[in-house]
Amino acid sequence: MKSYNVAVIGGDGTGPEVTREALKVCEAAARKFEFKLNWHPYDFGGERYLKTGEVLPDSAVEELRKFKAIFLGAVGHPQVKPGILEKGILLRLRFELEQYINLRPVKLYRAVDCPLKDKGPEHVDFVVIRENNEGLYTGAGGFLFKGTPHEVALQESVNTRRGVERCLKYAFDLARKRREGKPWKGLQPEHLKAGKTAQLTLSGKTNVLTYAFDLWWRAFQELAPNYPTVKTDYAHVDATCMWFVKNPEWFDVIVTDNMFGDIITDLAAIIQGGLGIAAGGNINPEGASMFEPMGGSAPKYTGQNVINPLAAINAGGMLLDFLGETKAGAAVENAVIEVVNTRIKSLAAGKMGYGTREVGDLVAAAI
Ligand code: IPM
Ligand code: MN
Known about the structure:
Layout: E1 2-11, H1 15-33, E2 35-42, H2 46-52, H3 58-65, E3 69-74, H4 84-96, E4 101-107, E5 125-131, E6 141-144, E7 152-155, H5 161-178, H6 189-193, E8 198-204, H7 212-223, E9 230-236, H8 237-246, E10 253-256, H9 258-271, E11 279-283, E12 289-293, H10 310-322, H11 326-342, H12 356-366
Bound molecules: 3-isopropylmalic acid and manganese (II) ion.
Manganese (II) ion is lined by residues 262, 266.
C-alpha cells in the first residue's frame, strides 16, 4: 500500500478544529482508495510563541522541507502583534520552501451561496494562479528618517525574469491541462475553430506599473506560442474585480502577481460562497507544498464547534491531488459538493445547521 508522510500545522484559533475535520475526511478517502497517510503534527503558532518566544526555529524549516506536503490550519493570534506569525510562519515557509505558486480554485457549488443574483455553478468555475514568492511581499524597501516629519517609507515590488516566467509557465500548463478533452465554455466559435480549448488571463496594471507589468507582459507574450491551445487574454486588475462580479463566466485561468493575487482571491472567495469554502495551495512543483483554507484563524469562534471546516477539507482534497491521489482528491471535492447541496443551510460560521465536527462526519460519510 502506498503511504505518504504529511506535516500538519494546526496553528491558531479555529485552525486546529478545521484541521481535525480535514484530516478526518482525508482518512476516509485514504481508506476508500487504499493508501496510508502518516500525519506529523507541529505546534507552531501564537500559543507556542507566547510561551517560548519562538516562532519557527530554523531546524523546523529544514525538517518541513523533507515533506512533499504540509497541511496548515491558520495563523494569527489576538495577543500577538499582526505580522509576527504571518511573516514568521506562513510567508517564511512560502519563501524558504520556494512555494512559488499560490493556486486558488474558485467554484460555486450551489447558487444560493453566491451573492451575484442569477449566477450559478455554470458561471463560477475558474482558478487564480498567484505568484507567491516575489512582488511586494519580499520585504524589499525601508525607511528614511523614520519617526521624523521627513520620513519616507519605500516598499518595493520585486519581479524577476525567472520568478515571473516559472509562474506563467505553471499557469499555461494548468490552463492546458484543466481543459484536456473538454473545451472551456466561454470560448467563442472562432477560437474553437482555431483549436483553442482554454483561456489564460494575465491580470495586471500595465498602464501604471510600467516596469513590473512590462516584464510580465513580455514574458507572457513570449511563452504564448508554446501553448497553441490556450487563448491568451489580458485584464487590468481593477477591471478584473469588476468582471468577477459582473461576468465571472468570462474567466478560466487567471495569473497575476503576489499582491494583486492576494486581493482578487478574497473577492473570488466571496463569489463562491466565502472563506468557509475557499481553499488554496502554496505549491513548489518539485518540493514541499503547503495547503491551507483561505480564511484566517477566526479566534472569536475558537472551541465552539461552529466554524465551517469545508475550506480546510477542500485544502485536504487539493493536498491528496498533489500527492498523486487524483481520484481521492476528486472524491473529497464531490463529497463536499454533495454535502453542500443536500445538508448545509449556509456556509457561514454558526449557520450551517450542523457543528464543525458533524460537517466533517457528513463529508467523510459521503466519501
Ligand atoms: C493569504 C493571506 C496572507 C497573505 C496573510 C495572512 C499574510 O491573506 O494567504 O491570502 O497576504 O498572503
Ligand atoms: Mn489574503
